[in-house]
């Protein structure tokens, strides 16, 4: 690593910014469009580019950590790391399927096509877990540099915009009254734990893998369904522009 950790004030400000997105997503009226807002599609492209060009390549380095820590050969260690990414994807796929089934059940009863209260809270709980890990990683990443942190911050704040917009649309009243505060608390709590507790590198590698799988599922869930009427060009543009930024960071 070889670099001094970033100031607590910088990462704290970033955590507060994340929390403000959770709290204020309902006020961003320009996102409420059909077809889907181009800004949301752009944000989705950025998040996917970050996962594939930044998080996933770092997993190879964490694979070496796994190899040393648990005595596996290199290929098995990498498989273990990527399995954790798969677990993240499967977990969030399961919660999304639960929400979808709940919406269909409510619609069949003649009610609004919204998730039931219990299913909505399960979704909030899983989102809070992912959010807390992302906030924790503000303080603990493979690369402690300022540019790397800035890249991480931009990608995650755009990811939260996409994810929170989708979560709020499932149950606006519950999200505005309670859900957003839970997510904001998870953000600040994850950041605080990151300031107080430094996990072993093998655990940080596992968290990175889990986050990568979860983000891929959440972003594609928001972009792929036909009813979203998503915009490909902004999604593509976000992915390409952010890929160029990450490659530029690597070159420097």
Fill in the keyword field for this structure.
single chain; 252 residues; mainly alpha
Describe the structure in your own words.
The chain crosses the membrane at residues 6-28, 40-60, 80-99, 120-138, 144-166, 178-194, 200-220, 232-251. Keywords: Membrane, Transmembrane, Transmembrane helix. The protein has helices at residues 8-24, 38-70, 74-108, 117-136, 146-170, 172-196, 201-223, 232-251. The chain is mostly helical and 252 residues long. It has one domain. α4 (117-136) runs parallel beside α6 (172-196) and α5 runs antiparallel to α6.
Number of helices, counting only DSSP H or I runs of 4 residues or more: 8
Instruction: Name the beta content range.
Output: under 5%
Give the integer mean of the pLDDT values. Answer: 81
The main pleated sheet reads as:
none
Globally, the shape reads globular
Transmembrane segments: 6-28, 40-60, 80-99, 120-138, 144-166, 178-194, 200-220, 232-251
Keywords: Membrane, Transmembrane, Transmembrane helix
């Amino acid at each position: 690593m070889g670099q001094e950790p970033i100031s607590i004030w910088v990462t704290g400000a970033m955590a507060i910014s994340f929390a403000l997105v959770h709290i204020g997503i309902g006020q961003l009226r320009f996102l409420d469009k059909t077809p889907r807002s181009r800004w949301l599609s752009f944000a989705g492209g950025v998040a996917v580019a970050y996962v594939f060009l930044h998080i996933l390549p770092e997993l190879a380095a964490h694979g070496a950590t796994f190899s040393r820590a648990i005595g596996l050969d290199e290929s098995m260690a990498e498989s273990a790391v990527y399995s954790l990414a798969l677990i993240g994807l499967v977990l969030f796929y399961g919660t999304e399927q639960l929400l979808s089934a709940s919406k269909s059940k409510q619609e069949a009863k003649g009610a609004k096509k919204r998730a039931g209260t219990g299913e909505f809270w399960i979704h909030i709980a899983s989102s809070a877990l992912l959010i807390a890990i992302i906030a924790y990683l503000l303080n603990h990443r493979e690369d402690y540099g300022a540019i790397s942190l800035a890249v991480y911050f931009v990608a995650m704040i755009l990811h939260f915009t996409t994810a929170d917009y989708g979560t709020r649309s499932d149950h606006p009243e519950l999200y505005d009254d309670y859900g957003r505060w839970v997510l904001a608390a998870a953000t600040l709590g994850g950041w605080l734990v990151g300031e107080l507790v430094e996990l072993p590198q093998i655990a940080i590698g596992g968290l990175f893998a889990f986050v990568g799988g979860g983000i891929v599922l959440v972003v594609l869930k928001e972009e792929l369904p036909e009813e979203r009427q998503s915009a490909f060009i902004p999604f593509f543009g976000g992915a390409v522009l952010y890929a160029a930024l990450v490659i530029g960071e690597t070159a420097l």
